[in-house]
Write a structure and sequence with these properties.
Blueprint (H helix, E strand, L loop, with lengths): L20 H9 L3 H18 L8 H9 L2 H17 L9 H29 L1 E3 L4 E2 L4 E2 L5 E3 L4 E2 L4 E2 L4 E3 L8 E2 L4 E2 L4 E3 L3 E2 L4 E2 L4 E2 L8 E3 L4 E3 L10 H14 L3 E5 L2 E4 L5 E3 L2 H9 L1
Parallel strand pairs: 1-4, 2-5, 3-6, 4-7, 5-8, 6-9, 7-10, 8-11, 9-12, 10-13, 12-14
Antiparallel strand pairs: 14-15, 16-17, 17-18
């Protein structure tokens, strides 16, 4: 018998995926996919609440009102700005060229976001910081001067009417707001505090303290009123104390000692024993 021809013995090659330029680039592009899905989901929930404003309209009228609904475009601009500000970068090792490309992309997105934000702000009057955390179902009822600061943390189904604002206090802290909260026209939330679920802040109310859940807050400063409850008395001593707290939070007064305050604009020293005044009012 003839001997079988032996196959040449050589090295075996395995074709494993190589860490090429395009593999790293695709990984960098897909790094923020979960963030994009979250933003789109929130945007869909926002639209589901906004579209109820057009119920009863004819199809053509509904399309016309939706295109010119500037408060909706303000919400959409916020979601886009949130996506831009929260984007992360994967670990690329020594791939400096890809890292530079991503930095250039981020710089271009930030400038484009700023440009479109200014246009929407001029058309709608709403300024929603892209660094704020707002849950799904955000609804702006009307156009007008309203704003949400960069450090605010807000739950789902938040409703804001015109001229309502959430701003930082004297300590640069922002509020933490629960779910299904409503701010009516002219309401202000100033400083770091907690507002419970389903709370409602009435028109022109100024919130500088925590609010419990399921309450209606009225007045300046705002006081919680439970359903069916009569407003609590508001003695003059408490009015003076709250007025003093408001001046300190606004930066017009500076505390320099026990019961001693300095007028920031004039430098005058004011002595006010508000604790003694409150005790006198309770007697």
């Amino acid at each position: 018998m003839q001997s079988e021809a032996k196959r040449p013995v050589g090295k075996t090659h395995t074709y494993a995926p190589r860490n090429t330029f395009w593999a790293h680039f695709k990984a960098a592009i897909g790094h923020n996919r979960n963030l994009g899905d979250k933003v789109l989901w929130c945007l869909g929930a926002d639209w589901q609440r906004t579209r109820h404003k057009f119920e009863g309209f004819k199809p053509l009228d509904k399309l016309f009102h939706a295109v010119l609904c500037w408060e909706w475009w303000a919400v959409a601009q916020y979601r886009f700005a949130y996506w831009v500000h929260k984007r992360g970068f994967p670990e690329l090792g020594r791939r400096r060229f890809i890292r530079k490309l991503l930095f250039l992309q981020q710089a271009a997105l930030l400038r484009f976001c700023y440009f479109t934000g200014k246009i929407i702000e001029g058309l709608s009057g709403a300024r929603l910081s892209g660094e704020a955390e707002i849950g799904p179902g955000l609804l702006l009822m009307h156009t007008g001067s309203c704003g949400i600061g960069r450090g605010a943390s807000i739950g789902c189904n938040f409703t804001m009417h015109q001229d309502a604002n959430i701003v930082a206090g004297n300590d640069f802290g922002y509020a933490t707001i629960g779910d299904n909260v409503t701010l009516y026209s002219g309401a202000r939330i100033i400083g770091a505090m907690h507002i419970g679920n389903r709370a409602r802040v009435g028109a022109n109310a100024v919130v500088i303290h925590d609010l419990p859940a399921d309450c209606l807050a009225l007045g300046a400063p705002a006081r919680p009123i439970q359903p069916g409850e009569r407003p609590a008395p508001y003695p003059a001593s408490r009015q003076m104390r709250d007025f003093l707290s408001t001046l300190i939070l606004s930066g017009e007064l500076e505390k320099v000692g026990q019961h001693r305050y300095r007028d920031v604009s004039t430098g005058e020293i004011i002595t006010f024993d508000y604790e003694g005044a409150e005790e006198a009012g309770q007697q």
